[in-house]
TrEMBL record, chain A:
Domain (ABC transporter): residue spans on this chain: 5-236
Keyword annotations from UniProtKB, A to Z: ATP-binding, Nucleotide-binding, Transport
Protein name: ABC transporter ATP-binding protein
Origin species: Pleomorphomonas carboxyditropha
Chief location category: membrane
Lineage: Bacteria, Pseudomonadati, Pseudomonadota, Alphaproteobacteria, Hyphomicrobiales
UniProtKB/TrEMBL annotation, chain B:
Record flagged with keyword Transmembrane helix: yes
Main location: membrane
PANTHER family (alphabetical): BLR7065 PROTEIN, INTEGRAL MEMBRANE SUGAR TRANSPORT PROTEIN
Name of the protein: Sugar ABC transporter permease
Any GO BP: transmembrane transport
Swiss-Prot/TrEMBL keywords: Cell membrane, Membrane, Transmembrane, Transmembrane helix, Transport
Domain ABC transmembrane type-1, chain residue ranges per copy: 105-317
């Protein structure tokens, strides 16, 4: 029991408000795909379209080679875990999990076996006779997952399942979901979150959405190392990538750019000759910057120091519009007001054109091939 | 100085009701709450407590309208009394031996059960409709409250005319469509008087019922219905297995409000069907005795009995229905 999904130019509009602008996606059977993006980007709407809780305005949705646009949710072979758990408050844990099966008139023995199996898997057997209100948030979430498992779905949908849990529980439950995916390795899972850590740790592939448009689809490491555009570059990674405006002064591969202040920078990107003197931006991640004694990428005064223990975040005033964030080892002693020069390896710089689209990378893309 | 050492235990989350020792802070809060309640308790004592006590007192006297203050206590004679005739026959008198009283009790109970049942069913249907999303829902929600907003006297008069046997529109419509072959004196005929009263009361109070149930429906989270849709639960099944159990607390409270109201109904019946023994309820009968027949003490006894009947039914209902007023059994 497993199926892939195909979305072709899926659009959704509420009246005249277009929420999703033609989504194309191909999700393989058994894959764990995470939809991520800022609030209002349409990721939850996309999940609800897949679930069948909302109608698709235009385009087609296939689950396992069948177009399911007009099928009711229960006929799509999906199960969904809601952000608020959506447990039936007047039913015990057992009844909550068995409700769908019972109404589908499954044999009582089969019902019982499946409920107990799922309960065992999620370690909620001791709570089977309790009401949801007698459970903690984490336990409720597991019941909600259990209810979905019992349906034996082809596609498992998660709508921000961890956002109502506290930080420690969130990490623990995240690990459980990862384990669940391992155990149910032939079940396709689609997971919506705004938390990039959840996205990075759980996903086989991440779909980054922004304003109802897919910005990039790729493995977590692809998104991290080779963002297609400025949005993805800034969205993935924490703290966010430093972005500096510059002018292209040398085309070809590698290319050279001149930031507003400081010396020219060489970047391993392939830039066509027509881009000479064009405006561009280049980015570098805080963790790729290291202090140096020699000439570096940026030099400035330390304006803020944030000690997080294992790392220290340093904000450098370099005369550019925004301070440069540097992530250095937590043991390095550094104080406000000091002057610091930092540098980064050429292949760790990212170059984007005026519209925020990344130029092809030279060394990294070749290394990946 | 052991009293200054107050013990505070933090209630563990989860089931169970651990005993908590009141702290000084808690006692302070309770005192403040008490002071806030004083004005309401005083007002209640004046407008409800005192009249109630007076009525109970009068029911044990031989008071009449002309001699309210010179009344003498006569014990339970208004409720039940007997005289032994010379022939040895015992003649019972008093409230509990009065067939007119028992007719009124029967009318009251019949009216209450029928009207509240009909209003609950119709109110639920209306609430379900109003809970769905459609254009102009706000206007419909407001419009449906109009019958409830009209003073009972006005709506009773209005319906009185509509149900009139000579000029009433209802007879006219039914005749035009050939549903009846002669005009019916809805409010005057013994067969239809109760039906007429029920129609008007249901028309008038269904909106109130619908509003209370609608409030309960809106407490149910939407995503539970989505979960049910994914579970493949048929909408009718969803209503019986999900909506109804979840709206039950609100429904029970709505029913008890209506039941209390229905048991002491007076104005509608007094205006619509005066002097019909088919619809005479306890309140109407009590007023008749208190004012028209100058049997003030006897009317007081009837009022007191009505109070006891309502109290008893309410206690039974709360106990049997496990009604909770603190937000239901979620």
């Amino acid at each position: 029991m497993s199926a892939g999904l195909k979305l072709k130019q899926v659009k959704k509009a509420y009246g005249s408000v277009q929420v999703l602008h033609g989504i194309d996606l191909d999700i393989k059977s058994g894959e764990f795909v995470v939809f991520v993006g800022p609030s209002g980007c349409g990721k939850s709407t996309l999940l609800r379209l897949i679930a069948g809780l909302e109608d698709i305005t235009e385009g087609t949705l296939e689950i396992g080679d069948t177009v399911v646009n007009t099928l009711p949710p229960s006929k799509r072979g999906i199960a969904m875990v809601f952000q608020s758990y959506a447990l039936y408050p007047h039913m015990t844990v057992y009844e909550n999990m068995a409700f769908g099966l019972k109404l589908a008139k499954a044999a009582p023995g089969e019902q019982d076996r499946r409920v107990r199996e799922a309960a065992e898997m999620l370690q909620i057997t001791p709570y089977l006779d309790r009401l949801p209100k007698q459970l903690s948030g984490g336990q409720r979430q597991r019941v909600a997952i259990g209810r979905a498992i019992v349906r034996d779905p082809k596609v498992f949908l998660f709508d921000e399942p961890l956002s109502n849990l506290d930080a420690a529980l969130r990490v623990a439950t995240r690990l459980e979901i990862a384990k669940l995916h391992e155990r149910m390795s032939d079940t396709t899972m689609i997971y919506v979150t705004h938390d990039q850590v959840e996205a990075m740790t759980l996903a086989d592939r991440i779909v980054v959405l922004n304003y109802g448009v897919v910005e990039q689809v790729g493995t977590p490491m692809e998104l991290y190392h080779r963002p297609d555009n400025l949005f993805v570059a800034r969205f993935i990674g924490s703290p966010a990538m430093n972005i500096v405006s510059a002018t292209i002064t040398g085309t070809g591969a590698p290319a050279t750019v001149q930031p507003e202040t400081g010396s020219p920078v060489t970047i391993n990107a392939e830039v066509a000759a027509s881009y000479l003197d064009a405006k561009a931006t280049f980015g570098v991640r805080p963790e790729d910057l290291t202090p140096t004694d020699g000439p570096g990428l940026f030099t400035g005064t330390v304006s803020i120091v944030e000690k997080l223990g294992e790392v220290t975040l340093v904000y450098l005033d370099t005369g550019l519009a925004e301070p440069i964030t540097v992530k250095i080892d937590g043991d390095v002693e550094i104080a406000k007001g000091e002057t610091l020069t930092v540098t980064a390896p050429t292949e760790r710089l990212h170059l984007f054109d005026e519209n925020g689209v990344a130029f092809p990378r030279v060394s990294l893309s070749r290394a990946a091939e | 100085m052991a009293s200054t050492q107050s013990t505070i235990r933090i209630a563990p989350t989860g089931p169970g009701h651990p005993k908590r020792v009141k702290s000084e802070l808690m006692r302070q809060r309770l005192r403040a709450a008490g002071w806030f309640l004083v004005p309401m308790l005083v007002a209640l004592a004046i407008v409800a407590g005192w009249p109630l006590l007076r009525t109970i007192y009068f029911s044990f006297t031989n008071a009449s309208l002309t001699n309210l203050y010179g009344a003498e206590l006569i014990g339970f004679k208004n409720y039940l009394n007997w005289t032994v005739l010379k022939s040895g026959r015992i003649v019972w008198s008093g409230l509990l031996a009065d067939p007119v009283w028992w007719n009124a009790v029967w009318n009251t109970v019949r009216f209450s059960v029928l009207s509240v049942t009909l209003e609950t069913i119709l109110g639920t249907i209306v609430a379900l409709v109003l809970n769905a999303e459609f254009k102009g829902r706000g206007i419909v929600r407001a419009a449906i409250l109009i019958p409830w907003a009209i003073p009972t006297i006005v709506s009773a008069r209005m319906w009185g005319w509509m149900l009139n046997d000579q000029f009433g529109i209802i007879n006219d419509v039914l005749m035009t469509f050939g549903l009846i072959d002669h005009k019916i004196a809805w409010t005057a005929s013994a067969d239809t008087a109760m039906i007429a009263v029920l129609i008007v009361d249901v028309w008038k109070t269904t909106p109130f019922m619908a509003l209370l149930i609608l409030a309960g429906l809106q407490m149910i989270p939407r995503d539970i219905y989505e979960a049910a849709a994914i579970d493949g639960v048929h909408p009718v099944k969803t209503f019986w297995k999900v909506t109804l159990p979840l709206v039950r607390p609100a429904l029970m409270v709505a029913v008890i409000f209506r039941l209390l109201d229905a048991m002491r109904i007076f104005d509608l019946i007094y205006v619509l069907t005066p002097n019909s023994s088919q619809t005479k309820t306890i309140s109407v009968l009590a007023r008749e005795n208190l004012i028209d027949f100058d049997k003030f003490a006897y009317g007081s006894a009837q009022s007191t009995m009505l109070f006891l009947i309502i109290a008893l039914m309410t206690i039974l209902y709360i106990w049997l229905g496990k009604v909770r007023f603190d937000g239901g059994d979620r």
